[in-house]
Amino acid sequence: MVSHPDDETFGCGGTLALHASKGAAVDIICLSCDPPERRPEIMGAAEELGVREPTVLENRSVVISPELIRRVSDTIVDLRPRVVVTHVPFDYHREHRAAYEVVKEAVEWAAHTTTYAEPWIVERLLLMEVNTLIPSPHVLVDVSGVMEMKRRATLRHASQLSKFAWGYYEAFNEKKAELRGVQGGCSFAEAFLEEPLPQSGPFYPVRSVGNLL
Ligand SMILES: [Zn+2]
């Protein structure tokens, strides 16, 4: 669940391609698409990654609102994902930080029996790095086998790549994956933070009661 076209590829394109190649149902929800000309770019990138056609919400910008949170929680309840990926809360981009808040809250509401007749409890919320790097990742995913797919998907975001004729995004994505690969003991990897999900309401009957050993 990402703010803009390109975030899905730059942040976690390899991880999406890897899981799709293993038969997982992988969906991209893009919260904003402005200008609308970027829409074909994310569609093309999804094709390169081998994932399903993205859902693109045509918001002009991502702002935290009850309406957007409800749209996202409705989507979670519809798609019933075990894992949700979104932005880190310390991203330099205001709309990426807003997406984190919206998605985190939507994950909570999707679990509420008071909101939905058939609620859905997301198991894991992972936070990706786009341009702001994660200081100490919790999860590294080996994307060596699908790196070529990520490179091809990156090239589909032509409007963004053209902002820097010297190839900033291509180089940044390549070096970032290489760095994470060094940390993970493989050629190329993607890094994530694991966001603990609160279980403070009455909606988690199995997992909120247990013991520590
Ligand atoms: Zn973005």
Approximately what portion of the residues adopt beta-strand conformation?
5-15%
Largest sheet: 4 strands, mixed
Q: What bound compounds does this protein have?
A: zinc ion
Order of helices and strands: HEHEHEHEEHHHE
Query: Are there runs of 5+ residues with pLDDT below 50, and where?
Result: none
Order of strands, widest sheet: 3-4-6-5
Distance between the termini: 34 Å
Q: Identify the overall geometry.
A: globular
**Residue share in helices?**
40-55%
How would you describe this structure to a colleague?
The protein has 213 residues and is an alpha/beta fold. The chain has helices at 7-21, 39-49, 66-79, 94-110, 147-155, 158-161, 168-184, and strands at 29-32, 55-59, 83-87, 124-128, 139-142, 189-195. The strands form 2 sheets. The protein has a 4-stranded mixed beta sheet. Strands 1-2 form a two-stranded parallel sheet. Strand 1, helix 2 (39-49) and strand 2 (55-59) form a beta-alpha-beta unit. Helix 1 runs parallel beside helix 2. The mean pLDDT is 94. Residues 3-4, 7, 93, 96 line the site of zinc ion.
Short summary:
The protein has 213 residues and is α/β, with parallel strands linked by helices. It has helices at 7-21, 39-49, 66-79, 94-110, 147-155, 158-161, 168-184, and strands spanning 29-32, 55-59, 83-87, 124-128, 139-142, 189-195.
Supply database-style keywords:
213 residues, alpha/beta, 4-stranded mixed beta sheet, two-stranded parallel ribbon, 7 helices, 41% helix, globular, binds zinc ion
Secondary structure elements and pairings:
Blueprint: H1 7-21, E1 29-32, H2 39-49, E2 55-59, H3 66-79, E3 83-87, H4 94-110, E4 124-128, E5 139-142, H5 147-155, H6 158-161, H7 168-184, E6 189-195
Parallel strand pairs: 1-2, 3-4
Antiparallel strand pairs: 4-6, 5-6
Zinc ion binds at residues 3-4, 7, 93, 96.
